[in-house]
Amino acid sequence: MKDRRRASRGIRLARFRPRVLDALRGYDRRQFATDLSAGVTVGVLALPLAIAFAMASGMTPQSGIYTAIIAGFIIAALGGSRVQIGGPTGAFIVIVYGIVVQYGVANLLLCTMMAGAMLFLMGLFQIGTWIRFIPVSVVTGFTKGIAILILLSQVKEFFGLTTEPLPAEFVGKVTALWNAAPSADLQTVLLAVGCLALIVGWPRPWRVVPSPIVALVAGTAAAAGLGLNVETIGSRFGEMPAGLPALVWPEMSLGTLRHLVFPAFTIALLGAIESLLSARVADAMVDDRHDPNQELMAQGIANMTVPLFGGFCATGAIARTSTNVQMGARTPVAGMIHAVTLLTIVLVAAPIAKYVPLATLSAILVVVSWNMGEWHDLKDLRRYTLNYRAILLTTFVLTVVIDLTVAVEVGMVLAAIFFITRVSQLTGVQELTVPAGPGVEAYSLYGSLFFGAATKIEPLFALAAPAHPTRVLVLDMHKVINVDTTGLEILETLHRKLARSGKVLIIAEPNDQPRSLFERSGFIERLGAANVAADLAAALELAQRAPAPSTPPSSV
Prior knowledge:
With 556 residues, this protein is of the alpha/beta class. The chain is 60% helix and 7% strand.
């Protein structure tokens, strides 16, 4: 009962404290003016991205805007970062599209709510810190893989192909696009290429006006003014409603929820990784430190709320967050203003959105995915280890060909295997030449005595043979940084073998972690407290006084 109470006290929940409460201390008009400028700029930039991400995901344009407004406000108001901008992102396109194709829009909304609950629990139980342990090679690999899949998803709209809804799997999608290649529309291609060139070539001094907004306006004006026969938001989805939708609770059943657990976990995992990665990038830009658990709880609340208004999954957006910081934002107020700006645009300019060509939105997403891939990093791959390259490329290929979750799982397993191998190589046993008298053998252990390296002690078992002249074995452990239960077990085995031959094991200078494990497991008691020396000199002095083996050589 006492142990149960002790265990319950060990579960520590994260406190719920949004960063906005700290950021508003000493808040003044000057900072508000800066936040206002940043929030309006990011809000305008978020409009075409929200629409493009939603359509590429198989959702309606308004669902993307609702997600950006509601999730953007909640994440800014309740999050653990001062400058994070939340909303729909390109990383979710492949996952959301696959869920919509397989389960339908209604079940996507349920998936998003379930993922929100998972994210909130991750933050509540302080798992946010663990997310940071995902290796950079895994994150880089799946990010580049998602970028390729986004590019692939835009081929149809960029070239104006006529085809049935594309399948979610990679091979089927590539096959369908290849078969539809003869249906490419010249007007659509010219408009898409023109918008792409405008975004890429927009002069740097003029970038106070974001290039995607310029392309959106120019592409829409060109399509309308020249009478281009290209597909638009209106021709595919009809009128854009002004204002937010009514609150609707989605239908659910236990049977349905059971099938949605895995896709919901995929959304939660990617949302956690991307939001904390975005927050970490923002920290470096503003010299701050975000609260990862508070950020995950805010992301969870946002994703549980957005589907009630027809939106879908949201997370921290690296590009919009970076723009927010570059415009001078330093508090969550800018993120809330970004959401209000989007709402204002929807209320005022929603009828105009139907004239936006899909080719223009496709050009915007092509640039987003290209920047997301950061392909210039590939030329530096040869400078990294073979292990790093293997993890990155495996994660990349599996993300593109199979599935993001499988890619992350395999990448993490590979990273763990390589880590175990590397640490085991840094662990070893070295014989010491010391003036300790006949029958005394001394060895130095170094590294980490864990399950991947514990067998390196096994050669010492030969010293326990009754016929061997060794009477005392001294193990200097001051260079051992860690011992796990497997390492403890092999030390216990060594001690038992020596004891059966009447020989003595002395441990010298164990560090705090090994000593703590030895004490808690009772190993020191079985070894004898006197046989744990403060340092090697004390251990050798103790060994010289140890009696000769009492067990006859013929015994086992």
